Structures are given as structure tokens and as C-alpha cells.
Amino acid sequence: MALARIARSGLRRSVGGNGSFSHEKGMFSEEVSTHKFSLLHHENAVAHGNQPYLSSIKTLNYISIWSRGIRTTPHQQFPNAASILEESESEYEEPRYAGLEATKPGEKPRVVVIGTGWGACRFLKGLDTKIYDVVCISPRNHMVFTPLLASTCVGTLEFRSVAEPVSRIQSSLATDPNSYFYLASCIGIDTNKHEVYCETVSNGGLPQEPHPFKVAYDKLVIAAGAEPLTFGIKGVNENAFFLREVNHAQEIRKKLLLNLMLSQNPGISEEEKKRLVHCVVIGGGPTGVEFSGELSDFIMRDVQEQYTQVKDYIKVTLIEANEILSSFDIGLRQYATKHLNKCGVSLMRGVVKEVHPKKIVLNDGTVVPYGLLVWSTGVGPSQFVKSLHLPKSPGGRIGVDEWLRVPSVEDVFAVGDCAGFLEQTGRPVLPALAQVAERQGKYLVGLFNKKIGKQNGGKALNMKDISLGDPFVYKHLGSMASVGRYKALVDLRQSKDAKGISLAGFLSWLIWRSAYLTRVVSWRNRFYVAVNWATTLVFGRDNSRIG
């Protein structure tokens, strides 16, 4: 063992003397042989508890230099020397990952999709699996119908009504022997090797956690979504709830019902009762307004009947830095403001300075105590997207051209909230909306099925002479938002400054419900949504707290 340590020490010195290494973003790369390998920043890995794993996968391109530090010894003279050198070499070899290797001649091209959001699932749904094998990688195994997510927080809808399993969207993921869904997070992409590097999502059931693996691709579609914007405000991540996933809605619902029940216990002061049942929503966009409207409905109907001891204490406050629903017509904004005030939602203009466990502080020094804080101020690039060594659009998204390809690398596309047009295209970065991502996914389906697939361009590095046809063009269909108590807003203008139809009131609410019911992915979930709406109308909302 001592001899082994001496051997390894000598080899390290030899590499240090002859190989030039540089440290960049948590990865070593040798000047003699450099790989473009995108990984999460080291500091981000530490923040998420992945430092031991990332330290084990830092790439060291080892060069065998035998003349320094230790003299080479003929294996026949000292048999142990061979094993020592082999052990030393293995220390410096690039890590070997289990997973899917590159496709072979005669096999179908493999398309790897990162994400299960609107863009990814629309692409998966339409992709012709007679032409391609498909692999989907995501930390969740379902698509979330986000426009109805706010309704699940107060029991208007059940959680399964807004979640569609990805295997139902693309059945080949469950039935095709060469197509797979992997419950994992992508941590890096090597565009030279056409490989994606992943870590499994698990809860202690695997021998090694996080469990790393790789997937080779012929074509890669990045649809990794975005993360809530916190603007670096202290205390947001620790104390606020976001509303992007089903588990977020579950936590909000549990917290809301818990606070209602705790406020009825004996010995609770008046001040503490008011704080416990004070719900604060930060952000006056469609999500914040719809959640506030759902809360007001819940208070006016269900709390008044089932929590009579605290019905006079419960309050909803919506805080926005500018105007609520700024992308809507001015007449609709005014209608929404009046209606929310009428429903008991207090509108406050201000900017949050810091968030504490039981209160928030605004820039002007105003202190707002709360029992439930929901943060809905828009989204921005995720840490994964930031870490990729790919061209970026204004705002930090992955830069794409008019055909949603990522320039400067081969066979990589990006759609949805994680992608934006590059400046040189002359096009604006599209808003982070579900309809944008869905349209991009639909466009990419046509590109893969009708252009790339039919011209035999599905294999890696096989697209150079293929005509992709017309570029992607986005046409805005309008915006809708529910404001509670059977009222909604419908703005059918194609842009903020354009002219078009704008409606508000009960008729708009019927349009809002009808439109979203038809947009729910499957007939199964449409049935769930319709039944939930009907039972809520007749029997009220489910306010049982489970878990």
C-alpha cells in the first residue's frame, strides 16, 4: 500500500509537471484534450447537496507520463507494479457512466427530450415513433395543466385533475422496448459526444444516491422550463410558497387549512388569529390574480359556513409593484381591480424588501404580517439552463434561431420557457406562456416528422443538407384570467397595443371554463374536471386536510 501511494504521488507530480490544467466552473479541462461538457456550477451543486457526487465526476484527461516522479519498472520483474500502475491510471480516467449508448446503423434515431412541460409534452404527443425512438428525462412523470392549478389549492379541483401522466401522452414510453421515461434530473450535456448526463430522483431506495447515468442522443430537445423569480430577495425561498407544481398546490392547501384550524384553538390572541388567517399573494399577474380570486371564493362560501369562529379575521392581500394584469386591456384591469376589492381582496402597491417567517417588509418600511405567503412574480432561467455552455438569448434563456435550433452545436433544439430567440434573428424573446411552449412543440413535431424524418436526417450529424422549410412564427391567441365568483376576463387582442375583443363578467367566465376544459390533455382528465366543478357547485369545496 505504501508503494501504491508513492506511485500515485509520483504520477500526480508528473502530470503537474507536463500537463497544464485549468479550473473552470467546477470542472478541470486539460489543454491537450478539451471536451465541451456542461455541468452545474460547483457552488450550485453544493447548495443542493451534490458536492460529493460532482467532485467524483470532474473530468481529468490523464496523460501517461512515465519518466518523472517514479521510474517505470518492467512488469515481469515486479508483478505488483502492474497493479499499482493500473490503479493509478484508473484514478485519472474519465468516469464511465451506465446508460444508453449511441444508436447503431439500422436502428431508429433516438430523440431525447428533457422536461415534461407544455412544450415537451406537445412534442412527445405528436412525434412519429415509427421513425424515432424517444427518451424523456424529467424529475416529474406527468404534465401539469397550469391554468387550473390555482383551483386545486382550495379544493375546487382535485390534484389528479390537473396532472396527466407522460406515458399516457406518449404511449411508446410505456410500450416500446427502445423508448424510455427516466425519472431524473439532467445535470450536463456534452454536445461533442452527443450525450446527456443525469442523476436519478429517488428517496433512499437505491444503493448509490444520487445515481448517475448517461443517455446518448441523435437529436436533443431541451424543454426544461424555468424557475420562479425571487430577485435575490432575502427569505423568499425559505418562507414563501410557489405555485408551479402539483406538490406546491398541495403544500399551499395543507398550510391554508392548518392555519384555519389552528386559529380556532383556545388561548390564541386576536393579533395572532389575524396573522394566521392572513393570506398574502405577491405578484399581480394571471396566476396571482386567479389564486386571489379562488381564495376569495373559498372565504365567501366555505369559510363563512365551516369556520364561523374566525370568518371575520380571514383576509387576502395582493401586493404588486405596478398594475395588476399589466398585459391585459386597461378596461379589463380596472374591472378586475373593482371586482377583487368587492370580493374582499385588498390590493396593495409596493416592492418587497425582505421576507421573514411571519412577516414581510416592503421598501417603504411597511410591515405586513402573514400566515400564508404565495410568491408569483414570474419566472426566469433555471440553474441548469444557466450552467449550459450554449448561446444565450436576452434574459439568459437558451438562444435559438428561427427553426428553434441551438446555433453553434449540432442536433440540439430548445422550446418553452427555457428558450428565446437570439438577438441576431431580429425577433423578440417570447413570453413565458403555456400557449407559446405548446405552439413551439407543435412546430417541432412537423419539423421532425415531415422534414427531418422523411429526408433521413434523424441520425446524429446528418442534417446539414436538409431543408427545414418555413421558420416558426408565433401568433398570440389572447389571454384569459378568472377573478372569482363566476367572473373572468377574456382579452383576444394579438398584442398589448393591438385592437381586439375584450370581455369581462359571467359570459367571460363561461368562455374561460369552456376553453380550458377543451384544452385539458385527455378525455379522462376532462371528465375529472367537469365532475369536480359540478360537485363543488352542489356540495362545496373539499376542506379536509390530509397529511
Summarize the structure.
With 547 residues, the chain is of the alpha/beta class. The strands form eight sheets. Strands 3, 4, 5, 6, 9, 10, 11, 12 and 24 form a nine-stranded mixed β-sheet that branches. Strands 14-21-15-16-17 form a five-stranded parallel β-sheet. A three-stranded antiparallel β-sheet has the order 18-19-20, with no helix packed on it.
Question: Could you explain the architecture of this structure?
Answer:
This protein has 547 residues and is an alpha/beta fold. 33% of the residues lie in helices and 21% in strands. It is built from 17 helices and 28 strands. The strands form eight sheets. Strands 3, 4, 5, 6, 9, 10, 11, 12 and 24 form a nine-stranded mixed beta sheet that branches. The protein has a five-stranded parallel beta sheet with strand order 14-21-15-16-17. Strands 18-19-20 form a three-stranded antiparallel beta sheet, with no helix packed on it. Strand 16, helix 13 and strand 17 (345-349) form a beta-alpha-beta unit. Helix 1 (2-18) crosses helix 4 (79-92) and helix 5 packs parallel to helix 15. The relative contact order is 0.12. Its EC number is 1.6.5.9. It is found in: Mitochondrion inner membrane; Peroxisome. It is a peripheral membrane protein. Keywords: FAD, Flavoprotein, Membrane, Mitochondrion, Mitochondrion inner membrane, NAD, NADP, Oxidoreductase, Peroxisome, Transit peptide. Its main location: mitochondrion.
Blueprint of the fold:
Blueprint: H1 2-18, E1 21-24, E2 27-30, E3 38-39, H2 42-47, H3 51-57, H4 79-92, E4 99-100, E5 110-114, H5 118-126, E6 133-138, E7 142-144, H6 149-152, E8 163-165, H7 166-169, H8 172-175, E9 180-190, E10 195-200, E11 212-216, E12 219-222, E13 227-228, H9 236-239, E14 241-242, H10 246-262, H11 270-276, E15 278-282, H12 286-306, E16 315-320, H13 330-342, E17 345-349, E18 352-355, E19 359-362, E20 367-369, E21 372-375, E22 379-380, H14 383-387, E23 398-400, E24 412-414, E25 419-421, H15 434-452, E26 479-484, E27 487-491, E28 502-505, H16 506-519, H17 523-539
Parallel strand pairs: 4-11, 5-6, 5-12, 6-9, 12-24, 14-21, 15-16, 15-21, 16-17, 23-25
Antiparallel strand pairs: 1-2, 3-9, 7-8, 9-10, 10-11, 13-22, 18-19, 19-20, 26-27, 27-28
Domain External alternative NADH-ubiquinone oxidoreductase-like C-terminal: 476-542
Pfam families: NDH2_C, Pyr_redox_2
Cofactor: FAD
